[in-house]
UniProtKB/TrEMBL annotation:
Species, as recorded: Kibdelosporangium aridum
ABC transporter domain span: 369-608
Alphabetical UniProt keywords: ATP-binding, Cell membrane, Membrane, Nucleotide-binding, Transmembrane, Transmembrane helix, Transport
Matches recorded under Gene3D superfamilies: ABC transporter type 1, transmembrane domain, P-loop containing nucleotide triphosphate hydrolases
Listed InterPro entries: AAA+_ATPase, ABC1_TM_dom, ABC1_TM_sf, ABC_transporter-like_ATP-bd, ABC_transporter-like_CS, P-loop_NTPase, Type_1_exporter
PANTHER family named in the record: ATP-BINDING CASSETTE SUB-FAMILY B (PTHR24221), HAEMOLYSIN SECRETION ATP-BINDING PROTEIN (PTHR24221:SF646)
Domain ABC transmembrane type-1: 49-337
Molecular-function GO terms, alphabetical: ABC-type transporter activity; ATP binding; ATP hydrolysis activity; ATPase-coupled lipid transmembrane transporter activity
Ranges annotated as spanning the membrane: 48-73, 85-102, 168-189, 195-216, 285-305
Gene Ontology cellular component terms for the protein in this record: plasma membrane
Principal cellular location given in the protein's record: membrane
Protein name: ABC transporter
SUPFAM superfamilies xrefs: ABC transporter transmembrane region (SSF90123), P-loop containing nucleoside triphosphate hydrolases (SSF52540)
Pfam families linked: ABC_tran (PF00005)
Length: 616
């Protein structure tokens, strides 16, 4: 990890360092804003409609306020006694006050509705993302490109959808503010429009250029920022804390932080200095433009082309337009930048969500599972994980899948359960291809206990009930805990079944690996499905707990199909049939006695393990 961070491979999803120019920004805005508008409408249609109405009302109030201001100034600059001029200006002055009071009220209403929209959009976007990621086939998570798309959608897409919502509201308000000022000036005197451009163009250029610099800097620093986050996790998370201290690796972690943090700091400084220069130039040019504007206005007044009152109104409109245009340019740039991440999010949803196809459900528990010449290759993998595997499993049988690491045992079990689709061959339940059946009805009949189960950050009760979350059966819950030995774990918890199992929360408790595994076995037992798949379920357990689990497994095996995956060959002696896999191929099968008599690879592995125990 100590290489020069500038030599890191740039991730394929990194944004284009070519910053957006004004024309490209304008062309890209419709493509960026439409998906965000649709999501806003789906999340909070009432608030969206209210914002639209109130922003239009606010813009009209601003325009009417400018017209009325011209009327006030006309009366005040007219001839006659001061008191008479003030009295004559009062109706217009009251109208100005009412218009701007209405605008203020609308702006408050927009802020309130906006405060409702942003969390609603975030909530909807999160739910759609999680629904999509939960609905894809399991094999998708073995595809690195899919995994990258999912993480881009989750880590950046969600954040920038929320930011895009804010910027879109800002953009619409800015456009309406500019329209109000421009329309007012056009009605008062058309020659005032080019005068307005003289005042606002320099500021608009400075905002545009500053955003381009920030965009390019973000592209250059994205890999450095990712490395800083990786080191931050090492320094601040609970999981690596023990090993770092045991290895006295604290100085090494800090050294790795400095390697990436220093160039990141330098890049931030370069960006900040460049932006400061651009803003300085922009403000200088804006000052010159404003001075020219006032000179032009003075000449127009001197030539009697523009009344003095209208010129005064123009000064107010120019100020308002400058502010609104700066906001518009900044919001537009940010929307286009963020639109790429929003597009990543939408692309992930499109790739993950397929139109539902009505498939027949499994009508009964399978009495026979047959695999015919099944092969399977993981996405992007050049080599097959399984090749030409055939087997038949009858209801009530306990079969064991054994072999060395990487031989394909777990992959085969997931094919039997219908979680993977074979690259070739068929997996049939009672003669029907499982992938022509409804996936939910298949999953409903499968129970899996994995070697590395989920550690739900929830109560002990919820951890077990997650096996079948819609089953409310306290008796079955207690029975599953007793059969797995999880009752001993729960009895030691301070709040029993109600104890929160996560140290990340106040009052939470942490369990050992063996204790977590007991809860996982209890979760599987509570699910109570006809097809049981046990993938190294007792690896972290002590001898006593392991014995109890296997006794429960033998009791459950009646009228159920059991697939057992284990490295401990002594645990499979009583299996009805044992299948030995080697490098993705089924090389031996039979009972324990038959395989020992065969004297092949199974017998060799069994004798090696027996010698280990004998020598101990």
């Amino acid at each position: 990890m100590s290489e020069d961070p500038r030599e890191l491979n740039t991730p394929h999803w990194q944004i284009d360092e070519k910053a957006e120019g004004p024309r490209r920004v304008i062309r890209s805005l419709p493509r960026v804003t439409w998906p965000v508008l649709r999501m806003i409408w789906d999340a909070a249609p009432r608030s969206a409609l209210l914002i639209a109405i109130m922003q239009v009302t606010s813009g009209l109030a601003a325009a009417l306020g400018l017209f009325a201001t011209a009327g006030v100034l006309t009366e005040l600059f007219s001839s006659g006694p001061t008191a008479d001029r003030v009295v004559a200006a009062l109706p217009s002055l009251l109208f100005v006050g009412g218009a701007y009071a209405l605008r203020g009220a609308m702006d408050i209403g927009v802020a309130i509705a906006h405060a409702r929209i942003t969390p609603a959009v975030r909530r909807l976007a999160e739910e759609r993302l999680y629904q999509a990621s939960l609905s894809v086939e399991l094999a998708a998570f073995d595809d690195s490109q899919f995994y990258d798309r999912m993480h881009r959608a989750r880590d950046r897409g969600l954040f920038y959808i929320e930011r895009s919502t804010d910027n879109l509201v800002e953009l619409i308000g800015s456009v309406l503010g500019i329209v109000a000022a421009v329309s007012s000036l056009a009605v008062l005197h058309p020659v005032l429009l080019p005068v307005l451009l003289l005042a606002v163009i320099p500021d608009a250029w400075a905002v545009q250029r500053s955003a381009m610099l920030a965009y390019a800097s973000m592209a250059r620093a994205v890999t450095l920022d990712r490395r800083v986050q990786m080191v931050a996790e090492l320094a601040t998370e609970r999981e690596p804390a023990a090993e770092i201290r045991a290895c006295q690796a604290e100085p090494f972690v800090l050294h790795e932080y400095r390697i990436v943090a220093d160039p990141l700091r330098d890049e931030d400084i370069r960006r900040g200095v460049a932006q400061a220069r651009v803003r300085g130039v922009g403000r200088t040019l804006a000052g010159v433009g404003l001075a020219v504007t006032y000179v032009v206005l003075g000449l127009l007044v001197h030539a009697s082309w523009v009344p003095l009152a209208v010129a005064g109104t123009a000064v107010i409109a120019i100020r308002a337009s400058t502010t609104a245009l700066n906001r518009l340019v900044l919001a537009s740039n940010q929307l286009v930048e963020q639109g790429m991440y929003v597009a990543d999010y939408l692309a992930f949803l499109d790739s993950a969500q397929r139109p539902p196809v009505a498939l027949p459900a499994v009508v009964a528990d399978p009495s026979r599972v047959r695999l015919s010449n099944v092969s399977f290759t993981y996405p992007t993998s050049p080599q097959a994980a399984l090749r030409d595997v055939s087997m038949t499993i009858e209801r009530g049988q306990t079969i064991a899948l054994v072999g060395e690491n990487g031989s394909g045992k777990t992959t085969l079990a997931k094919l039997i359960a219908g979680l993977y689709t074979p690259s070739s061959g068929l997996v049939c339940w009672d003669g029907t291809d499982v992938h022509s059946l409804d996936r939910a009805s298949i999953a409903n009949r499968v129970m899996m206990v994995l070697q590395d189960p989920i550690r739900w950050p929830h109560t002990a009760r919820a951890n077990v009930q997650a096996g079948r979350h819609d089953r409310d059966d306290p008796v079955a819950l207690v029975a599953a805990a007793a059969q797995s030995g999880a009752d001993e774990v729960v009895d030691r918890l301070p709040s029993g079944w109600s104890t929160l199992l996560s140290k990340q929360f106040r009052g939470g408790q942490e369990l050992s690996g063996g204790q977590w595994q007991r809860l996982a076995v209890a979760r599987g037992l509570f699910r109570d499905a006809p097809l049981l798949i046990w993938d190294e379920p007792t690896a972290p357990l002590d001898a006593k707990a392991e014995f109890a689990v296997y006794e429960s497994l033998r009791a459950l095996a009646e009228e159920r199909t059991v697939v057992l995956i284990t490295h401990r060959l002594a645990s499979v002696r009583h299996a009805d049939r044992i299948y030995l896999l080697h490098e993705g191929e089924l090389v031996e099968q039979g009972t324990h006695t038959e395989l020992m008599d065969l004297g092949g690879r199974y017998a060799e592995l069994y004798e090696l393990q027996a010698k280990m125990y004998a020598n101990a």
